[in-house]
Amino acid sequence: MTVAAAQETGLRIEYPFTLPRGYVDEHGRVHREGVMRLATARDEITTQADQRARQNPAYLTVLLLERTVTTLGEVPAVDSFVVENLFASDLAFLQDLYRRINADGHTEVAVSCPHCGNDFAVDVAGDAPGGS
């Protein structure tokens, strides 16, 4: 499904995010803003069949993220090199975002104010006003 077709039906397939630290490219530039799309069955199947994931099951995360993170700042292409060179906190953030949008269907988490006790939702992707 194209982005335009998804928008017409009201289906959200792209999720903007802001990395906690950011990817630092070979020129020292920091890239924090990006977009992740919903994973497809093909994403899941293809990555599991990849020899790198067969040799090291932890590498499956790298493969899934390189397929579903469509943009990251001004990086020309998000590939395995980029994902491998993310800070651990940014990798964990993207793993959690992937799980939230593909399993839970949203990026919001319910929280309570420690001072007043009011409950509200926070968008953990960081695309809501106020950032991450």
Structure overview:
- There is one protein chain.
- By secondary structure, the chain is an alpha+beta fold.
- 39% of the residues lie in helices and 25% in strands.
- The protein has six helices and five strands.
- The chain has helices at 3-9, 41-49, 51-55, 60-68, 80-84, 88-104, and strands at residues 14-24, 30-37, 69-72, 108-112, 119-123.
- The chain has a three-stranded antiparallel beta sheet with strand order 1-2-3. It has a two-stranded antiparallel sheet with strand order 4-5.
- The longest helix has 17 residues, at 88-104.
- It is globular, with a radius of gyration of 16 Å.
Q: What brief labels describe this structure?
A:
132 residues; alpha+beta; disordered C terminus; single chain; two-stranded antiparallel ribbon
Principal-axes shape call:
globular
Helical proportion? 25-40%
Low-confidence runs of at least 5 consecutive residues: 127-132
User: Into which percentage range does the β-strand content fall?
Assistant: 25-35%
Describe the biggest sheet? 3 strands, antiparallel
| Ends distance | 28 Å
Mean pLDDT rating? 85
Structural class: alpha+beta
Q: Give me the strand/helix succession.
A: HEEHHHEHHEE
Number of helices: 6
Q: List the strand order in the largest sheet.
A: 1-2-3
> How many strand segments?
5
For the CA atoms, what is the radius of gyration?
16 Å
